[in-house]
Specification:
Number of strands: 9
Largest sheet: 5 strands, mixed
CATH architecture of one domain: 3-Layer(aba) Sandwich
CATH class of one domain: Alpha Beta
Strand order of the largest sheet: 1-3-2-4-5
Length: 395
């Protein structure tokens, strides 16, 4: 392949360099540098493809610092497909750059651990032991992890039947890291789907969807995982594939054309099919953090808020910038910890100003990033997945 051949000229040409994306971009907001903005990065990639700028490590850093949050897409009047551009550009950068130890380890971990369910579960078991002996506190990445418990287990027969008359049959994405890090979010999501009159099917042989691989420039592995999963999804009948991780949901909608129109975020599906009347009040002051790939990639902002407001006793208070990235962005907080921390600082200030008892979101990366930052500040604000808050009204 010629350098940057993956990048579409048509995609690059949609950017008219108007600059309306600048104030929405988290890295530009922090640095004020044109090269840390969407249009600046598009300009760099365009010039690399035209061979009018030399490709070097100094300039590559600007691509590394992109969170891939796609906030720019939501404010772009020209409809620039920035998510597709940055993933293709990052794939080319990783193909052409000099070997980098940190990124080589990240790629190996994604391919040899995250993409292999049995290995990932074994790693989770080892990590639980390490947490019990406080061994993980020696590493920054270890300190970010939530307390690990037994992973999510698929029910017998790979089916969780509807509670009451069945109206729908849905497939459920178990995914890779979420059943290890946040099994309680999955259990709550499945319970909500059952309450919404859904039989919940767990396809056998389901793998990681490939979102983390694509976001980090490994499109080859993302395509391999997609092809494996599509063969498995073709073996069953379902009305929707329900996903409770925003990053996975946006990747499936963009990258799995064979599932066109059937991939649904949990909040999107529950708002569509409805839940029964809640059984009890949940008296709590809550704020909602928009997961980037839910708000900007999938354009889902109203449904989760409507579901939260429908919980009796909940007071929903909006923070100043609920749809600006928290700095998690998959592996970003590990690969680019300094920039991640600067972006998180603004988010934590916004959270504190709400005086909320709990912040709710819809993505495991956001959960981990926010909880870690709040712990470091000594804050008592709890962090939960939206499914966990909603299910409280039915337990």
């Amino acid at each position: 392949m010629k350098p940057f051949e993956r990048l579409s000229d048509d995609d690059l040409a949609t950017c008219v360099h108007c600059g309306l994306c600048l104030d929405a971009c988290p890295t530009f907001r922090v640095t004020g540098l044109e090269t840390e903005s969407p249009r600046g990065r598009i300009y760099l990639m365009t010039q690399w493809k035209r061979e009018q700028l030399p490709f070097n490590e100094e300039q590559v850093k600007h691509i590394d610092l992109c969170l891939g949050c796609r906030t720019c897409e939501a404010v772009c009047p020209s409809g620039v497909p920035y998510g597709r551009i940055i993933e293709a550009g990052r794939a080319e950068v990783e193909r052409l750059r000099r070997p980098n130890a940190k990124r080589r380890i990240a790629k190996a971990a994604l391919r040899q651990l995250v993409a292999r369910p049995r290995r990932l579960r074994a790693f989770g078991a080892v990590t639980r032991v390490a947490q019990a002996t406080r061994a993980t506190s020696a590493m920054r990445s270890g300190r970010q992890l939530p307390p690990l418990h037994a992973p999510f287990e698929v029910p017998a027969g790979r089916l969780a039947p509807a509670i009451g008359p069945r109206k729908h049959r849905v497939a459920f994405l178990v995914g890779c890291v979420m059943p290890i890090l946040y099994p309680q979010s999955h259990y709550a999501a499945v319970k909500l789907l059952q309450l919404a009159s859904c039989d919940v099917w767990f396809p056998e042989g389901e793998r990681c969807c490939g979102a983390l691989h694509a976001h980090n420039g490994d499109l080859d592995e993302a395509e391999r995982l997609r092809d494996e999963n599509m063969r498995m999804y073709a073996s069953g009948e379902f009305d929707a594939l329900v996903v409770d991780s925003a990053g996975c949901g946006s990747h499936l909608k963009d990258f799995y054309p064979g599932l066109q129109g059937r991939v649904k975020d949990l909040s999107e599906w529950l708002a569509e099919v409805g839940l029964p009347e809640p059984k009890r009040e949940v008296k709590m002051r809550v704020t909602y953090q928009d997961a980037c790939h839910l708000a900007h990639a999938q354009r889902i902002k109203k449904q989760p808020r409507d579901l939260i407001r429908a919980v009796p006793g909940v007071e929903l208070v909006e923070m100043r910038h609920p749809d600006i990235c928290c700095g998690a962005a998959g592996l970003y907080s590990t690969l680019e910890p300094q920039m991640s921390a600067r972006i998180l600082a603004e988010k934590l200030d916004d959270l504190a100003a709400t005086r909320a008892e709990m912040v709710v979101t819809a993505n495991p990366g956001c959960q981990m990033q926010l909880a870690s930052g709040l712990r470091q500040r000594g804050s008592h604000i709890a962090v939960e997945h939206i499914s966990e808050l909603l299910v409280r009204a039915f337990l």
